[in-house]
Specification:
- This protein is of the alpha/beta class.
- It has a single domain, classed as Arginase, Chain A (3-Layer(aba) Sandwich).
- Helix content is 32%, strand content 18%.
- The protein contains eight helices and ten strands.
- The strands form two sheets. The protein has an eight-stranded parallel beta sheet with strand order 4-1-5-10-9-6-7-8, with helices on both faces. A two-stranded antiparallel sheet has the order 2-3.
- Strand 6, helix 4 and strand 7 form a beta-alpha-beta unit.
- Helix 1 crosses helix 8, helix 3 packs parallel to helix 4 and helix 7 packs parallel to helix 8.
- It starts with 23 loop residues before the first strand and ends with a helix.
- 54% of the residues are buried.
- Pfam families: Arginase (PF00491).
- Its EC number is 3.5.3.11.
- Pathway: Amine and polyamine biosynthesis; putrescine biosynthesis via agmatine pathway; putrescine from agmatine: step 1/1.
- Keywords: Hydrolase, Manganese, Metal-binding, Polyamine biosynthesis, Putrescine biosynthesis, Spermidine biosynthesis.
- This is Agmatinase.
């Protein structure tokens, strides 16, 4: 992709700088080729941008305005439809470029497998990378029906790449028995069901660490976010996820990037899922991009 001209489609509200001037770069990963239930998250990045135009640019939570942050919307990576491996390679190459240029990568998915190449790119830059994973699902499978490239596998891949002790999962309420057994025995951290309260206990331990945060929108209860491919009852509210984002903003961690994945607009004609996701993007820009 070229960075010397503006994205020709809808951009996230308040996009206010060129690529060269930007501190953060928003980019889309329109991929849903390995999902296990309902497809459609490849349309998430575009719709998150479109509904963001209904947001205020000022955050009363953080008392900051989007004009205070230089960010650039690079649009969607032109991923080859149906080719998961080539798409993963392209995402990794794209994020390599962002990191080489000193940018804060803020990715919009797409299915959760798109986080895997981001982890690989970040691991090349940071020796001590830690991942905060906020999700309904453990995503600790080695494969799904024999296929290792699956949206149910990225956190297992991260454990194998970085070491389980560098993975912190929150809000988990679904997975195979073997996934929960792996979490207990491997040394990774897993907080079941809740996000904000366990985060309060963990975040002080991560002070000074280089931390990447991946958020699957299905951590929200389906009543708050029906627009996702694998909805899971019993989740948190959007207010609780906002609280978690603000808790992370208030810590002394070095947040090196983030993504929000699994928004599938077709399943939410009310638009509350994509509206919530766009608000989370705003709060991440204002709270995490220093």
């Amino acid at each position: 992709m070229r960075f010397d001209e503006a994205y020709s489609g809808n951009v996230f509200i308040g996009t206010n700088s060129t690529y060269e001037e930007s501190k953060a770069v928003i980019y889309g990963m329109p991929m849903d080729f390995t999902v296990s239930f309902r497809p459609g998250s490849r349309f998430g990045p575009a719709r998150i941008r479109e509904v963001s135009l209904g947001l205020e640019e000022y955050s009363p939570y953080l008392d900051r305005h989007l004009e205070d942050v230089n960010y650039f919307d690079a649009g969607d990576i032109p991923l080859p439809f149906g080719n998961a491996q080539r798409s993963i390679d392209m995402i990794e190459e794209f994020v390599d470029k962002l990191l080489a240029d000193g940018k804060f990568p803020l990715g919009l998915g797409g299915e959760h497998l798109v986080s895997w190449p981001i982890f690989k790119a970040l691991n090349k830059k940071y020796d001590d990378l830690v991942i905060i994973h906020i999700d309904a699902h453990a995503d600790l499978r080695e494969h799904y029906e024999g296929e290792p490239l699956s949206h149910s596998t990225p956190i297992r891949k991260a454990c194998e790449l970085l070491g389980p002790e560098k993975i912190y999962s929150f809000g988990i309420r679904s997975g195979m028995r073997e996934e929960f057994q792996y979490a207990r025995e491997s040394g990774m951290y897993m907080a079941k069901f809740d996000v904000a309260e366990p985060l309060k206990q963990v975040l002080p331990k991560l002070a000074g660490k280089n931390v990447y945060v991946t958020i699957d929108i299905d951590v929200l209860d389906p009543s708050a976010a029906p627009g996702t491919g694998t909805a899971e009852a019993g989740g948190i509210t959007s207010k609780e996820l906002l609280q978690a984002i603000h808790l992370i903003a208030d810590t002394k961690m070095n947040i090196v990037g983030a993504d929000i994945v699994e928004v599938a607009p077709a399943y939410d004609p009310s638009e509350q899922t994509q509206i919530a996701a766009s608000k989370f993007v705003r709060e991440i820009l204002l709270g995490w991009v220093k």
